[in-house]
Design goal:
Blueprint (H helix, E strand, L loop, with lengths): L1 H25 L2 H10 L2 H18 L1 H4 L22 E4 L2 E14 L9 E29 L6 E16 L16 H37 L1 H15 L3 H11 L6 H14 L3 H14 L3 H8 L4 H9 L4 H24 L11 H5 L5 H6 L5 H24 L7
Length: about 400
């Protein structure tokens, strides 16, 4: 009986091994990449963090209890410390989280700065799904100079928010000097930085595919001319370029128009690297038999590039796009940090990092550094995911 059982288990294991091998050899390229990517724990952890940050940015209006602009400021709690919800204190336990009430005062002991005096005998309870400031789930509004052409697209108006308090306001990350909620500003800043990166990557992606595809497929004189243009764009120094553009941008431009302008410029200077990779791949693949067969069947050059050559390079294109995202976010943050990019009232990570260089903030208002943590998490998540995808897409990386 034991021998029969062992034989059955052995046959079952053999059958499962055969199915596993069959699934491996019949799997698509994307399925193989995903199977190798799942084995990379750091990449999976980065992916979870990245998805969480993207969700926080996309649903920022719903997650934010208050308007992140000056319209939602709290004049009674300027430069206020973070308010941490509690479940119990000296007065007993509560099933609902609560924060304490406070009073603002100036004194000689605090060098006449505003300080908060906490009243632990008066609780304010946190509530879920409260109504507050109105917002649009989809909100695109760009005003061009001269009011000759405007872009306005809004859908799904709502005033529902995830949490709030039954009396007064709650500031999980504290407030800045005007009294704006740093938690709400941070979520909207993540969305803005991701939006800038998305627009910039999309523009660079289209330019790279077009220029790299044409250069690699046709070669010859056209390839030489396009490569000279590519090298010229690569040699343009970024900081002097943006300093010149910052001087060029009129002061009357709206914050949304400046945001669109920065996104386009980042995309226009970010395509050469991917274009070079596409060109190199097409130069080696254009002489293959399947390309010749497509040409003999009367396929146009655009059809051959779009339907035959680029799909064989899809995994590397996806990896390059993911790796390009943190560089776009870093570029926007660096430019806004030095005053050449986005400015108030736009909430971006670079704009929020401008405040952390002040001496008064370093000494007294350390909660201004909370957006720095989210910025580092966003960049590191992109880096880990990009490295994991790069290793998973490489058939010679040693994965089995």
């Amino acid at each position: 009986m034991t021998d029969v059982t062992n034989t059955a288990l052995s046959d079952s294991a053999t059958l499962q091994e055969q199915k596993r091998k069959e699934a491996y050899f019949t799997a698509s390229q994307l399925q193989l990449i995903w199977a190798r990517f799942r084995k990379n724990r750091s990449a999976m952890a980065g992916g979870v963090v990245l998805l969480a940050l993207i969700a926080m940015g996309v649903f920022a209006p719903f997650l934010s209890p208050y308007d992140p602009t000056i319209a939602g400021r709290d004049p009674t709690y300027q430069n206020g410390a973070p308010q941490i919800p509690y479940f119990w204190d000296d007065n007993g336990f509560s099933l609902r989280p609560f924060i304490y009430s406070y009073e603002r005062e100036r004194s000689i002991k605090s060098n006449f700065r505003w300080v908060s005096k906490v009243d632990k005998d008066k609780r304010r309870y946190v509530r879920l799904f409260v109504t507050g400031w109105e917002y649009y789930v989809i909100d695109v509004d760009v005003d061009f100079p001269g009011k000759t052409f405007d872009i306005s697209f809004r859908m799904f108006k709502s005033n529902l928010h995830l949490f709030g308090v039954d009396e007064g306001k709650i500031h999980l990350f504290g407030t800045d000097s005007p009294g704006k909620d740093i938690f709400s500003r941070t979520l909207h800043a993540i969305y803005t930085s991701l939006a800038v990166g998305t627009i910039g990557v999309f523009i660079s992606f289209v330019l790279a595919l077009v220029i790299g595809g044409v250069s690699g497929y046709f070669g010859g004189m056209l390839d030489s001319v396009l490569q000279m243009i590519t090298d010229a764009v690569r040699t343009v120094p970024a900081i002097p370029l943006f300093m010149a553009l910052a001087a060029f941008v009129p002061d009357e431009w709206s914050a949304e128009l400046r945001f669109l302008f920065i996104s386009i410029i980042l995309g226009l200077i970010g395509w050469p690297t991917l274009a070079r990779r596409v060109r190199t791949h097409l130069l080696t693949e254009r002489s293959q038999d399947y390309v010749l067969a497509a040409q003999l069947c009367g396929a146009s050059p655009s059809h051959v590039i779009r339907r035959h050559l680029l799909p064989s390079f899809t995994s590397y294109i996806i990896v390059d796009l993911v790796i390009s995202f943190p560089y776009m976010v870093l570029s926007e943050t660096a430019l806004s940090f030095i005053g050449l990019g986005l400015k108030d009232p736009v909430n971006s990570l670079g704009v929020m990092l401008q405040n952390v260089t002040k001496t008064d903030v370093l000494l007294n208002y350390q909660w201004y550094f909370i957006p720095v943590i989210f910025f580092m998490a966003l960049v590191m998540a992109f880096v880990f995911v990009g490295d994991g995808l790069r290793d998973a897409a490489d058939p010679y990386s040693g994965h089995k």
